[in-house]
Amino acid sequence: MAKKKKDKKAKSKDKASKKAKAGKKSVLKLVAKKANGNGLPKVSSKPWGKDGKALDGVKILDFTHVQSGPTCTQLLAWFGADVIKVERPGTGDITRGQLQDVPGADSLYFTMLNHNKRSITLDSKSKEGMKVLERLVKTCDVLVENFAPGALDRMGLTWEHIHALNPRMIVASVKGFGPGPYEDCKVYENVAQCAGGSASTTGFHDGLPLVTGAQIGDSGTGLHLALGIVSALYQRKRTGRGQRVLTAMQDGVLNLCRVKLRDQQRLAHGPLKEYTQFGQGIPFGDAVPRAGNDSGGGQPGVILKCKGWETDPNAYIYFITQAPVWEKICDLIGQPDWKTHPDYAKPPARLPRLKEIFERIEQWTKTKTKFEVMNECNAFDIPVGPILSMKELAEEPSLRHTGTVVEVDHPTRGKYLSVGNPIKLSDSITEVERSPLLGEHTDEILTKVLKFTPREIAEIKASGATGQAPKAQAAE
Ligand code: CAO
To answer: pTM of the predicted model, to two decimals?
Structure first.
């Protein structure tokens, strides 16, 4: 009897463990099923960075010029897209010849905005040129352009025509303004900075509006457009169809000036107390004023002199009196009594006294180099920013190490520095390649990408559409 009981127990234990194993199996199966069932491929077992690039297989018809559009397509190229830049025969992108430092060589303006691309020369206004363009439209996934409003339509490449040729194509455009009173205007960087709210809020309150050195109108809008394109590619996976992507430079700048529109609305409820002009007793008007070097956030900050400022135009540091580290700041600058003094201990009490406070901090920063201030403050988590010159950035070893500053070799201009991809993907590693020479890949694209026959290519060239004279003619 006892044995029977034991046997029964053993059997049921066995059953339970079998069940548990089966259960485990089915959970595993379920996980595996889920991984495949939701449309995602199997998890790659290749080493990080060795399984291709993020945008491998995406073909871009790059009809961009100057800065905003090329910034966008360069980013896409860095992420692995095959970017085919279509340029006008003879001159190409106008920036090739602008601000030239090495006679006869493509300018830094061009080379620093067109890495990792291929170049084909095509006269889009000729019959044969349009034939090639239409083949490109059928072959590519995305057309990116930043011509003046209406230029693409005038070429005959209306959205309707493109969509009929290739319903999967995404057509992405930079324009100066979105639909509205200014939609037909041509726009350059500084026009966008002015129209997007940046200039009216940059500079000192008693001085002229200023434009900034950062190319927020051009490069900023290119960045916005790149996100729009990648999103449209993602949506196309589901819908199967392309769409139009538009980024207006005014919109891009305004997006980057978001905090100023925030302040515009705060102004309706009283003065902006963190602005220096509040402490100076200068009344506010009905629009956000220029705030000098005041901090963009709620933490008061200014630019202060450091050792050597008399001769070095960049011996300055941005200093933020962040509330949680106020006591550490007081100790560091040798003003420990401010930690408890009712005029200085709490942020609201400090606001009307910011000028005096920063003058006191500056007495301390002037005794040290900007890097000494940086080191001493960082030890106490006090946020400060040394004013780094372009020379210092170009020579900074850590930026070279991360590929944010890269040295590139170019056949006609030699070695030059460029800004590499500022967006780092751990599984899609950027290799910065030199920009193409004008029309360098015309033959390769006609043959290998567009699959024209030798006879067709001869016809295209004979027509002058690529700007290359056929051999017989060239010999004359
Ligand atoms: N073959 C033949 N013609 C070509 C061609 C090619 N491969 N590529 C361009 N063209 C033609 C265009 O069709 C256009 O002709 P039409 O005016 O006769 O239709 C012409 O070249 C010039 O185009 P554009 O007006 O765009 O160039 P622009 O130098 O006069 O203006 C710019 C430049 C930047 C002000 C304008 O393109 C623009 O406003 N773009 C949108 C906003 C933008 O991106 N600005 C950023 C500029 S970076 O600071």
So the answer is: 0.90
